[in-house]
Specification:
By secondary structure, the protein is low in regular secondary structure. Helices cover 0% and strands 0% of the residues. The N and C termini lie far apart (37 Å).
């Protein structure tokens, strides 16, 4: 059943899914996997 009847295409159980790959995964060879700067910075407000 939709969570909001105004938007029937939205479901109330939306979940983000991501796959984790080992650093030695062949598709990652030759890429820089060093951590970088944060994507978002949060203010102390």
């Amino acid at each position: 059943m939709p969570a909001n009847r105004s938007y029937p295409e939205r479901q109330d159980n939306e979940v983000y899914r991501a796959h984790r790959y080992a650093p030695d995964y062949p598709g990652l060879q030759g890429l820089d996997l060093a951590p970088g700067e944060p994507i978002e910075l949060y203010s102390a407000e």
